Every structure is written in C-alpha cells, then in structure tokens.
Amino acid sequence: MVEVVVTGIGLVSPLGDSLEASWRQLLAGKSAIRLQQPFAELKQLPLALIGQQPVYLQALTRLVVSAAIADAGLKLPLTDCGVVVGSSRSQQATWERLARRHDRSEEWLNTLPHMNAIASARQIGASLVPVLAPMAACATGIWALFQGYELIKTGQCQRAIAGAAEAPVTPLTLAGFERMGALAQTGSYPFDLQRQGLVLGEGASVLVLESAELAKQRSARIYGQILSFGLSADAYYATKPDIEGKSAIAAVKQCLDRAQLSPTDIDYIHAHGTATPIGDRHEAGLISYLFPQVPVSSTKGATGHTLGASGALGAAFCLKALQQQLLPPCVGLERSEFDINLVTTGDCSKINRALCFSFGFGGQNAVMAVAKYE
C-alpha cells in the first residue's frame, strides 16, 4: 500500500512570509487583523492583509510554490511532479479591474480559473503530468490536497505539489459579504460568545506530497503522513449548513473509517471556525457530538478567513503541531459559547494524529487526517 507523506511546506499568511514566521506569531497569540480601507469607495473594515495593499494572486502563488520546493530540498525542473493548485475566488481582482476599464483584450484568457495551476506547472517544469485547479468554496484547500494525495495513491505520480492560494480582498468580494451580513466590524473571534462574523484574509499554502518510498530514498525530512480524507455535500442551501449536520458528520466518519481510526484516536482538531454565528454553532455541535474531549482551535482569529486557502493553511499548521508537539491557540477567543475543549494558549501536548476541517458555502464538507510518520 502506498503511503503519502509531506516533505515540504510553503506558506505565506498575514502573520508572516513563511511557515516558521507565521507559526511563531500564532503560538504567541498574535493576530494580523487590522482596521483597513484599501478601497476608497468602501468603508473601513477589519482585514488581514499580507502587505500594505491587497496582494496579487499570481505573485503569491509563485512565492509559496518556490518556498515549498526549497523546503523539500528539491531542485528544478520537476518534470514528473503533479500539480494541484486551487482557489475559490481565483483571479477576481483582475476580473474586476478589467471590467472597470471595459477591457476587451485577450488578457481575459490569462485569468481563467485554471491558469494559476498552469503557471505553477510551468514554474516547476512539470510536463506530461496531471495539472488540476479545484474550486470548492472554503473547502478548496483540502480538496486540492485530496487530489494530490490521490495522484500518488493511484500511481499517477510519485510526487505532487498541492494546495491553494487566495487573494480575496476586492471591492466586489467585500461588498458581497457585507450585503450578506457575514462580515465582522471589529475582529474575528471564533467560537466566542460575542463573535460577529468573518474577517477576510489573504494567504496561500502549498505542500510537497511524496510517496514514503520516494521520500526515504532521498532521505527527505518528513513533516507527517496523510492518512485519509472525507468529502461530502449538504445539498441544502447556498450559504447555510444543514442544521442537522448529517452530511458534515458523514464526512468526518468517512475520513475516520478510511484511516481505520475512532474518535478517541484523534489528539487535535484544527477547526474551520470562521466566527460566524451559524457556522460556529454548526461545527461546535459536530465536535461535541463526536469529539467532546479533543483539543480544538481555529487559527482564523489570527490569519483572518483565507477562504479557499484556509484548509491548506490549516493542514500546514496541523503538520507543524505534529512536528513540534505544540497546540496552536484559538486566537480571539475570550468566552466560549460552547462546551468543547478549546485551546486558548499555545501549549505542549502529545499529538500523534490530527484532523483538519473545512466547511464551505453550498455545504461542501472536507476533512483531512494527518499523523506523525513512524
């Protein structure tokens, strides 16, 4: 049976320009969320920006792909490396810019949703391999990792880069979420009694996945092993989860069953935790039902909600927790509404297996299990 391991991680978030920098800030309980007004036509809102102005998707993706390859100790070109790079908003910032100037040039063709994945394939010199560009709302990151995992498990590749990038701070995105009443007005407070809603954040994370055999042949450093995934869809409502949570629970159980695990085998859960009233209630209900004692945290109070990239960031933080045996805190939480084991400060803990949750609009549920590699 083919085992899939992670040998490299590239991550950029509002907390820092690398996984290490972001992890240090996260453990210290820091938040990158600040009141910002990047667009004169819109009011000031809390946002988590990487720089002083909204980032460009292509530049952000190129940066994390390069970081992941370097972290894995690989050299280009990687002709036989599969590529899976997703995004839920894709090149929307460019689309809005072109629409404002009524541009009818062929530049539109360079901004189609799959072009970012193609650019990543060109960047690493991949050829004659699958190049995929999943879009599954906020579940995109874990979907991308699942597809990269499947490329290796099915023997299509022995190595793949997989993850997601998001540059969602655009006028239309902000206006849309504001119209829905989903945006917080002061900050992001996952699972808190006084939570207001989500805070948009920029970010990207790409992982180098390899068969364990290939990783051992080249004596690669291994962050951890990917055990399994669970995927489902509510088919209930465009923006609200099914209040009974049956489909989300099914995704979790599917993930556990595939890895031959029980809920008591899980040592940590990286929750989706967007700080929306309905979303957190839905997720907390699932956790209290299946994992009443398991330590839980959401990192969105620190990074903001990076939409499609959030699951890929969460997976990277899970792997870092396994590597360092440290639990990241639920930044922004002061008084929990729910009776679940929420982590409030970065703390040492024995972590052998962890789950990462993503629950996207349209009821798109994605769950990933990772473990220390022995």
TrEMBL record:
Enzyme Commission code(s) on record: 2.3.1.41
Q: Which SUPFAM superfamilies match?
A: Thiolase-like (SSF53901)
Q: Record's Pfam families?
A: ketoacyl-synt, Ketoacyl-synt_C
Q: Which residues form the Ketosynthase family 3 (KS3) domain?
A: 1-372
Q: Which PROSITE patterns match?
A: KS3_2 (PS52004)
Q: From what superkingdom does this record's organism come?
A: Bacteria
Q: Which family does it belong to?
A: Belongs to the thiolase-like superfamily. Beta-ketoacyl-ACP synthases family.
Q: What is this protein called?
A: 3-oxoacyl-ACP synthase
